[in-house]
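Quick one - first record:
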Amino acid sequence: MEVSGKILVVYYSRTGTTAKIAKEMVGRLGADMEEIIDKKNRKGIIGWLSAGRDAGARRLTEIKEPLSEPSLYDLVVIGTPVWNNNISTPIRTYITQYRDHLHDVAIFCTGSTEDNKALGEMEALLRKKPLAKLKLRRKQQIETGEYAKKVEQFIEQFQAKHG
């Protein structure tokens, strides 16, 4: 699958689920990859609880400075896990800090339910309409492998609009 221009896939993943999808996209697109690193420890039950609390309160966090400058890319694909029905705090921080550096964007989220507001939140923070959106359910789609077809459709969506 070939999309014209330079593509960057940016993601945060606490448990590896969102990372799995991001890596799949990088492989299919030949894109560069940027993992967002949260400086706050989110491991274990305490990390899980603080993640949900921070996301629900729409807090920002301190992230390591990304290695890739998003303005150098024609398309940036941003992926987040869903925390407490919201986008993850590290991705909220990344979007807030870099939204003015982004050209075209596509967004995706991974969570345990279809009923969350993560994609709408991402779009509002970005202040622009994404070329494509993808919402994946962890148990029903990612762990069963059903996600592959949805990822392909997601890529086709932004490929049609981007080039």
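second record:
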Amino acid sequence: MPTTAAELFIFAALLAPGFIHYVQRRRAVPQRTLSPLVETATLTTVSILTNLVALGVFSLIRMALPEHTPDVQRLMLEGKEYAAARTGYLFGWGALLLAFSCVLAFVIGIRPRWIARFTERFAPAIVDVSAWYHVFEDGPEDAKVYIGCDLKDGTYVAGYLDWYSTEVAETADRDLVIAEPIEIRMPGEVNSASVDFPRLVISARDTARLYVSYVAEEPSGP
């Protein structure tokens, strides 16, 4: 463990990529609450991975431009004697490599489709997200989510998905919001009727079934 302020600063900086990845994943995908041990292990693993990639990139640059990069061997052997005269230079290179590592962690956290397709080969078939998130976000990128909903009292409502709770726990204390055009069919009736209000809030507690489809958006403009 770090014992001085400088060592504590370096330790925190090296873990920054893992923290950025953690924050980005929680922002992009709902996550279950993990134990402090698992969260720490995840943060540390991502930081180690991205920092190693950054060091690998630095090694390639060092091989191509030995005169314009820090001499790591001399730094390890001479320590403060080598670093004292090059503090700003070494700090700049360290900040650059750390920034590269943080950007890499951020990209991994976003999980663009090419990364997602690669990781799906190693990921389990069981996903650790709610069924709502899995279904609502599984459609084509250029499609809107259309929801038909059977309520427990026999009412049927339908409309485009506007918002939903990303709570991972499958609890009844969740809501989703559908947007116009909204159709409602009351119990015992055959035909649905359009309504004038622009939004309708539906509680999971009152929901019996959801029917989800993906409707391609029409191109805008001439």
